[in-house]
């Protein structure tokens, strides 16, 4: 089946003329048209432009000038600006916003020949862990209609999991690539802060936000990361570091690799089945030559409080741009400028977003800055220092991605704290700025779950190497939701 | 930190959000719960700890003050709720 093929296999099939780019794109459009009215993974489809681009790529292929990934159907999280295409960030605020330019990630993936078939659903402004905070309605988990897909990149995860596209882009501020990847049974990586340009990626918390690929396998992730990563002068926090070829390190032997087992990750609240599956994976890595070393990250326990100060604080500043003047939602008949600001924001933004803006405004307000924002930034240093010490002893740190498999739609919407605790294992790498990936290692009661690998700065290659070596020896990443097979 | 109606209304003013009367209790409750969650931070000793504002401890890079973008006024104004003669329109500010 075409939709089960890896990027490498698809490129070979295209080279061998087993099918054309147009046939490939039409195949995925047919699948998406069929499944999406139910899944709700997409906010906007770009089928018409995708077909045109596919025809164009077929021409380039026939005259030998095709870019490296010519014809690969992907989807972009609706947080990436796409020129001439509605870009909503899952919010009523931007329901009428047509981006006037392409995000750097979009531009790079287009230049490489990939074809976007649509913009994927997400929690509003990437604030959420279940995709239930979208103005466009929740996304269903392809493995179970009653379960959430995770969030905030829930639409991207569901679309890849249901094989409606080959891969998708996501963003991760506290776990928004890894948590939905885990819950939908796919592979996702949040690279080092600054590895991928944030230009044109709608901002949530600028010192934490990072884009990344969401794919069926570590190999596909390496291929896409090769395209997405790199310095961009338009993003002042973009890292000016050379990008290695991530596909080259996939097959490095694991012999001598030191893997950190962090005991703090295996305490209360973790589903025992997930713990068992991670232990099984560790035994497999040992059998492949890796060495397991116990490490400690004692400040991790303060990560959630620190995150839920820093992220809202930065969000409150970033989202002050939505004022109803230059773009976005404007209230009806404002009586004066202040009324225009306040009502446009209150009517155009959803509850969770407003709540985080309120928390952030409080944390940054006079008299509270030191006790909240500065304190959280100091805890961030302690978390970063813990990792620095751990990475003196080990190459990678292994743990769970999520405390449980996907929860039910509506289960946690009334309790923000229990929703926030979803991010307990993922948030620390955002605070430290470290790269981290999730890939599927097991199933429980029909729902998949992932294992998380955290690497040292700019060591994405080793994360993908370990995940790929696991995927060579196992089939968890090949399992697909029954409904789509 | 006790969150009451006055605190909520004050934060809403800072955030330029309009909170309806019937929403105040909800915000008092949810903000109290979130501030209670983050209160745990106060137990951590952070004496002399350097705060992290950029995870790579990078410094803000500056560019030359040169025009690099072409004029796309019409394109950008196309997203404006209201515009006239190349300008964004808002309700009258000065009488």
Structural topology:
The complex is a heterodimer of chains A (485) and B (95).
Chain A: H1 7-15, H2 21-39, E1 42-45, H3 47-62, E2 73-77, H4 104-111, E3 115-120, H5 154-161, E4 167-172, H6 178-184, E5 187-190, E6 210-215, H7 218-228, E7 258-262, H8 272-287, E8 291-295, H9 303-318, H10 337-348, H11 351-364, H12 370-393, E9 396-400, H13 416-420, H14 427-432, E10 436-444, E11 447-455, H15 460-472
Parallel strand pairs in A: 2-3, 2-4, 7-8, 7-9
Antiparallel strand pairs in A: 1-3, 4-6, 5-6, 5-10, 9-11, 10-11
Chain B: H1 5-14, H2 24-39, H3 73-77, E1 83-84, E2 87-88
Antiparallel strand pairs in B: 1-2
Helix pairs in contact in B: 1-2
Brief descriptors of the model:
heterodimer, A: 485 residues, alpha/beta, Amidase signature (AS) enzymes, 11-stranded mixed β-sheet, 15 helices, 38% helix, 13% strand, B: 95 residues, mainly alpha, two-stranded antiparallel sheet, 3 helices, 2 strands, 33% helix, 4% strand
Instruction: Tell me how many strands of chain A there are.
Output: 11
Our measurement of the CA-to-CA distance between the termini of chain B, rounded to an integer number of angstroms, reads 42 Å
Shape of chain A: globular
Name the beta content range of chain A.
Answer: 5-15%
State the shape of chain B: flat
Overall average residue pLDDT of chain A? 96
Would you tell me which CATH topology of chain A applies? Amidase signature (AS) enzymes
Largest sheet of chain A: 11 strands, mixed
Rg result of chain B: 22 Å
With helices defined by DSSP (H or I, 4 residues minimum), what is the helix count of chain B?
A: 3
How big is the Rg of chain A?
21 Å
What do we call the CATH homologous superfamily of chain A?
Amidase signature (AS) domain
Helix count of chain A? 15
Whole-number count of domains of chain A = 1
Low-confidence stretches of chain B: none
Bin the strand percentage of chain B. under 5%
Q: What fraction, in percent, of the residue positions of chain A are helical?
A: 25-40%
CATH class descriptor name of chain A: Alpha Beta
Largest sheet of chain B: 2 strands, antiparallel
Q: Taking strands numbered 1, 2, ... along the chain, how are they ordered across the largest sheet of chain A?
A: 1-3-2-4-6-5-10-11-9-7-8
Distance between the termini of chain A: 10 Å
């Amino acid at each position: 089946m075409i939709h089960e093929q890896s990027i490498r296999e698809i490129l070979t099939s295209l080279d061998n003329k087993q099918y054309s780019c147009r046939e490939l794109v039409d195949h995925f459009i047919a699948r998406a048209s069929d499944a999406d009215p139910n899944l709700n993974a997409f906010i906007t489809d770009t089928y018409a432009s995708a077909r045109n681009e596919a025809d164009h790529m077929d021409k380039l292929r026939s005259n030998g000038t095709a870019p490296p990934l010519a014809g690969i159907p992907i989807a972009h999280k609706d947080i990436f600006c796409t020129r001439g295409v509605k870009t909503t960030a899952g919010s009523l605020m931007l329901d009428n916003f047509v981006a006037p330019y392409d995000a750097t990630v979009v531009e790079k993936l287009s230049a490489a020949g990939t074809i976007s078939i649509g913009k994927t659903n997400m929690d509003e402004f990437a604030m959420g862990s279940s995709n239930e905070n979208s103005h466009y309605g929740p996304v269903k988990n392809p493995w179970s209609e009653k379960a959430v897909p995770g969030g905030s990149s829930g639409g991207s995860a569901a679309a890849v999991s249901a094989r409606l596209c080959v891969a998708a882009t996501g963003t991760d501020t506290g776990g928004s690539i890894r948590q939905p990847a885990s819950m939908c049974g796919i592979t996702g990586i949040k690279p080092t802060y600054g590895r991928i340009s944030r230009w044109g990626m709608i901002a949530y918390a600028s010192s934490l936000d990072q884009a990344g690929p969401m794919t069926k396998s570590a190999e596909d992730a390496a291929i896409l990361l090769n395209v997405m990563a790199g310095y961009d002068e338009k993003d002042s926090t973009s890292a000016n570091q050379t990008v290695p070829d991530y596909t080259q390190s996939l097959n490095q032997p694991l012999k001598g690799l030191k893997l950190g087992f962090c005991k703090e990750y295996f305490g209360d609240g973790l589903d025992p089945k997930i713990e068992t599956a991670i232990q099984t994976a560790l035994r497999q890595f040992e059998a492949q030559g890796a060495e397991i070393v116990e490490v400690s990250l004692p400040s991790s326990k303060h990560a959630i409080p620190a995150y839920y100060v820093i992220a809202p604080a930065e969000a409150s500043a970033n989202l002050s741009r939505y004022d109803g003047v230059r773009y976005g939602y404007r209230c009806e008949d404002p009586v004066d400028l202040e009324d225009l600001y306040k009502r446009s924001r209150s009517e155009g933004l959803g509850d969770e977003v407003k709540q985080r803006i309120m928390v952030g405004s409080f944390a940054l307000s006079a008299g509270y800055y030191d006790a909240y924002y500065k304190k959280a930034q100091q805890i961030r240093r302690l978390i970063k220092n813990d990792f620095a010490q751990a990475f003196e002893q080990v190459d990678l740190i292994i743990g769970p991605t999520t405390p449980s498999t996907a929860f039910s739609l509506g289960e946690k919407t009334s309790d923000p704290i229990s929703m926030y605790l979803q991010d307990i294992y993922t948030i620390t790498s955002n605070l430290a700025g470290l790269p981290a990936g999730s890939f599927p290692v097991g199933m429980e009661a029909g729902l998949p779950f992932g294992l998380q690998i955290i690497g040292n700065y700019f060591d994405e290659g080793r994360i993908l190497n370990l995940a790929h070596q696991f995927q060579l020896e196992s089939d968890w990443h090949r399992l697909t939701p029954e409904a789509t097979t | 930190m006790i969150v009451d109606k006055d605190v909520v209304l004050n934060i809403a003013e800072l955030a330029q959000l309009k909170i309806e009367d019937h929403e105040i209790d909800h915000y008092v409750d949810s903000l109290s719960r979130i501030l209670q969650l983050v209160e745990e931070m106060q137990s951590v000793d952070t004496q002399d700890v350097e705060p992290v504002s950029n995870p790579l401890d990078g410094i803000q890079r500056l560019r030359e003050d040169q025009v690099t973008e072409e004029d796309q006024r019409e394109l950008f104004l196309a997203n404006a709720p209201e515009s006239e003669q190349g300008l964004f329109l808002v309700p009258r500010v000065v009488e």
